[in-house]
Design a protein that fits this description.
There is one protein chain. The chain is an alpha+beta fold and 217 residues long. It has 4 helices and 13 strands. Helices cover 14% and strands 31% of the residues. The strands form 4 sheets. Strands 5, 8, 9, 10, 11, 12 and 13 form a 7-stranded antiparallel beta sheet that branches. The protein has a two-stranded antiparallel ribbon with strand order 1-4. It has a two-stranded antiparallel ribbon with strand order 2-3. It has a domain at 79-173 and 181-216: Cathepsin B, Chain A.
């Protein structure tokens, strides 16, 4: 679907992303790279119907006679609808010759993350005037081993029920106020049938494969 946006606001975000200065090897840096502004030039130019009609007139019925005009453009991927549950799936493999190799690098992730710098200024389910879209970490999946064999374990946070989050999921209600602290609770490490209480510092030092955040309301 192609929509026409004001050129001055089409690439605007809820919060200034240029103030981030994200640390390399962090979730913030991954998001910053994924949502960066890209220039489409040369062989990546955008096919423009308006430019085509301007140069060659209305489209013709005979396919072989069709001509197209391309133009330089900008492209940016931004979040237009902030989800109640935010899931990150980290790529833990890379090409190594003709095979794949496990990536064991630690990726830093916070207990509370703000998506506002990566959301469009017209994000659909953010209350007018809010410049923060905060999420609290509640689950982590970790993989140990290689590409051929290994073991999955999980960290889960036991916490009280978030009624506001339920309202957002079931009714799509737009949050009016945002908290800045992570949801209180106790973290547990789960490996098969073995469950052990752990600290938040232990969770944040894990080699995350999947991250689960819930919207703070």
């Amino acid at each position: 679907e192609v929509s026409t946006e004001d050129g001055e606001t089409a690439f605007c975000t809820l919060a200034n992303r240029e103030d981030l200065n994200p640390e390399e090897g962090s979730i913030h840096h991954c998001l910053y790279q994924f949502t960066r502004n890209e220039k489409l030039t040369e062989t990546n130019k955008l096919l423009c119907d308006v430019c085509t009609q301007r140069h060659y007139g209305p489209k013709k019925n005979i396919k072989s006679e069709k001509k197209y005009a391309y133009t330089n453009a900008k492209k940016q991927m931004l979040i237009s609808l902030a989800p109640p549950i935010l899931t990150f799936h980290l790529k833990r493999f890379q090409q190594a010759g003709f095979g794949l190799r496990k990536v064991n690098r630690h990726i830093k992730f916070p207990e509370v993350i703000d998506l506002a710098p990566f959301c469009t200024a017209k994000c659909k389910n953010v209350a007018e005037g809010n410049t923060k879209v905060l999420y609290s970490l509640y689950g982590v999946v970790e993989h140990s081993g290689t590409m051929r064999s290994g073991h999955y374990t999980a960290y889960a946070k036991m916490r009280s029920m978030n009624n506001h989050l339920s309202d957002l999921v079931l009714q799509g209600q737009c949050p009016q106020a945002l908290e800045t602290e992570p949801v209180k609770g106790q973290w547990f490490h789960i490996s098969d049938t073995h469950v052990q209480a752990v600290s938040a510092a232990k969770v944040l030092s894990s080699q995350a494969y999947l991250l689960f955040y819930e919207r703070l309301l």
